Amino acid sequence: MPNTDQKPIISAIIIAGVLIAGAILLKGSKPSATANIPIKDAGTTVTALAPVGASDRVIGNPQAKVTLVMYEDFQCPFCGKFFKESEETIRSTYVQTGSVQFVYRDFAFLGPESDRAAQAARCAGDQGKFWEYHDYLFTHQSGENQGAFADPSLKSFAKNLGLNSATFNGCLDAGKYVQVINDAKNEGGTAGVTGTPKGFILVGGKVVDTIDGAEPFTTVKTKLDSALK
Q: What pTM did the predictor assign?
């Protein structure tokens, strides 16, 4: 006759074996801790920041250790503030010395004059004056969608900068860069951009920090210096 006192022990061993096997199966079915997890950077989820390409407006050393990608809207008052208080200094102290490559990307989301201003800057770029026009726009903001960046004004800006008016006007009237500006905004949305100015600081093609809003130059300087170490 079998020893009945062993039944509870045998049952416990069987149950424990089943639980351990189940735990192993569950563990094996879990995804890797790094699989499909978006990068989190200073409050911005970066799912896919487009690499620097031919459609970008770029200044600075292409071999620079650090790349700063800025998404901006020419009508955005905070972009205007950032341009005057930080961007100009970034370009003169980091870009001109070759330590940082600066990439401008359009995120024209504030209305029709944002779109047209972005297109106009590209048309100016056809004549080698994208950055002059870029700077002119940021220093001539006057409200949003109230006519400051309507076509007549944009054409007047081009004339003031010495551009060939017929060529510039033809480019703007034809909507040559409509799709480019739309694509840039869509790419920004994919990267998690919801407002401007928004910057991504990259080292070796990877985001190491972000610029969130019209941050003062002292704050941006700290981030760039850290990335350059």
A: 0.78
